[in-house]
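sanity check this chain:
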Amino acid sequence: MDFRFREFLAALAAVGLAGTAALAQQPATSGQYGYAAQSSQGVYRTSSALLGDSCETCGPVDECGVCEEDIYGCDPEVGCDPCIGCDPCSSCDTCYLAGPDEAWSLMGDSDAPFTVGGWIQAGYHDGSTTLFNDRPDEINLHQAWAYIERVADGSCGLDFGFRFDAMYGIDGTDTQAFGNVPGRWDYLNGFDHGPQSWALPQAYVEAAYGDLSVIAGHFYTLIGYEVVTAPDNFFYSHALTMYNAEPFTHTGALATYSASDDLTIYGGYTFGWDTGFDDFNGDASSFLGGASYSVTEDVALTYILTAGDFGWRGEGYSHSVVADWSVTDNLNYVIQSDLVRADEFDAVGVNQYLFYSITDCLAVGARGEWFKSDGVSFYEITYGVNYSPIANMTIRPEYRHQWSPTDAADFADNDVFGVDAYVTF
C-alpha cells in the first residue's frame, strides 16, 4: 500500500508538470463550479482584453492606483490591472505556484461559436466507501472527460445550442444510463473494459428565447447538491444520499424560466431515472421540476422534485431541498434534505457542508451526513482540503469516517483516507 501511495504522489507531480507546461496557452474563464467557497480556478481579475491597451479606458484612478469609474468592467475593489500595475496600496499577488490567475482552456481566445473542454481526474483511497470510490489501494483513473457545447443565448431573440459529453474511467459504470434495458445507449453494450468504462452522460439540444430555455435529450438531473462531475464538488468522495437516493441522469425535455433576478422555475418530462434515450420496459414516465429562489443576497433556496414512474425504482415521489448560505466572503454553509418514497425504495437523508476559503488557492471543508434507507441508518463525516498549485489543477486530500449502528449493515472500512487530483482543460 505504501509503495502504491508513493507511486500516486509521483503521478500527481507528473500531472502538475504537465499542467504547468500547458500554461503557455492563452488564459480563459473557467466553467461552472458547484459551491460558493471553492476557488480552485482563482477569483476573477480584470483582464487586459476587458480593459483594452490604454489606461484611459479605465477612467481616472485614485491615490492607490485603482480605477474610480467602472466604465469598461473595471472593478474598483481590484487593486491591480494591466494598465496600472501593482501598487503598495493594493494587493494582487497570486497564490499559484506558476501560471496565470485564470484557468487556460483548449479554446483560448477563440471566437468559435462553441466550446470544447474537459478534465482528467485520478485518485487513491485506502478503503472502500461502497460508492464511486470502491477500488481501494489502487491508483484509479476516475474520469477522463471531454465535452463540446454551445450555450443558447435568448437575450437577443431565438437561439439554439447543444451539448455532448463523453467520459472514460472507473466512474463510467456509475455514470452510464443504468436505468435502461441492457444493451441500449451506453449501458451493457460493450462500453465496459474491466473496471474502466465509457459513458455518454449528456447529449442534448437547446433552444432559448428571452428568459426561457428548453433542453431536450439526455442530461444531468437537477436533484441534489453534489454531482457526478469531479470539478464541481469540493470532496473527492460522495455523500451516501447522492449515490443511493438521487438519479444521475434523465432523458426527456426540461424548461428553465428566469422569472426574475431572484426566481428561476424548472419543469419537464422525463423517462424516469437514469435513462439514456430509452425507458425501463416502456413504462417510465415522470415529472422533473421545481424552483430556485434567492431569499437574500447571501441565501439561496432550491426545491426540486420528481414524481411518477421512475422506471427501475418503481412509481413514487422524491424531492431535494438545498439551502446555501454565504455566511461571509470566505465562509459558506449548505444544508440539504432528500426524501424518496417509491415502490422499490424508501429513503431520507440530511447532509450539511461547511467550506472556508483561506486563499484563492486553498480551502478547507467538512461534510456531515445522516442517511436512512429502508429503516437502517448510516452516518458519515468527511474532512477535506482543496489546494490549487496552478489555476487548472486541484488536489483534494480527505479523511472520511463512516458507520452504521446496525452491525449487519456496518461498513467494511469505517475510516478511509483518500486523495485525488484533477486538471481541467
Observations:
- The longest strand covers residues 376-390.
- The helical segments are 2-21, 48-51, 172-175, 240-245.
